[in-house]
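Quick start: what a row looks like.
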Amino acid sequence: MEKSRESEFLFCNLCGTMLVLKSTKYAECPHCKTTRNAKDIIDKEIAYTVSAEDIRRELGISLFGEKTQAEAELPKIKKACEKCQHPELVYTTRQTRSADEGQTTYYTCPNCAHRFTEGASCLMSLFHGTPAVIMASHALLTTPRADVHSFASPNTAVESNVLDFSMAYFTVDLLHYLIFLPNDFIFILHHIATLYVFATCRFAVGHGAHGLLLLLILAEATSACQNVWTITGYRKNDVALARRVRELLSPPFYLFYTVVRGLAGPVVLYDMATFYGSGAADGVVPRWAWLSWLVVIGFAILVSILWVLRNWLDWFRENNSSKKYK
């Protein structure tokens, strides 16, 4: 490992990456590009600075947080990360200055780097969710229907544009997960399944967008709240404002999510299943298409209900625990 210069051995407050001294005035995080004033690190222990890639490679930890075989072999300590509360830290012991001095133990959280890639996904979702709700609502309100429950009506140009917009988002976010978060199988499968439903409706069938846009509105209505809730959750342990926002937002967000995903979603799905099951779409929407749509949508709704139920249980448990210690 090539030594660059003597500097303070400090880590980034945001992602935990080792800082690199760029000049006598400041040090920079090579991962998230945040900087620290050199005066802030005076009187700290001096060590040789290496790049984030070097230290992570030597520790066996990928820059983007995915676990490697080398990391699995590193010793672990049952100590929670101060930033993300991950229950374990990996550590390595090495001499950082000279052979006649003691060794230093360095702790690294294998989970922290995930927060930036997940946060980037939340940012993309913010630019899709609310606009998709507005576009889908406009498409449904401005498209004349002989029957408001006609889930087999031909896709209009406006409806097709909404499907194209959403497919573009899910494609980009899917690529993001495949590159940076390949172990997040639930999100990857969710995006693949969603793309399948939208793509078959848009290109293979050409009918049925009416019902899918109704479900898209319900699914994305909670998007803004959910993304803010998620992002503040990443920083709640080291930013007081994030913790307060998370605490205030959690109950109304869970309630809104429960009503939209847990009540309204199943009602629309039931209407679709009744319509298609009655044979009203025969000859227009193939049986394989609407059956597969119902399976994918039903499973997605079930996962959403289980997710919000788990969050409700965690919220009640935390509230009860805090009351006991007051």
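That is the whole record. The longest strand covers residues 89-94. The CA atoms of residues 53 and 63 lie 6 Å apart.
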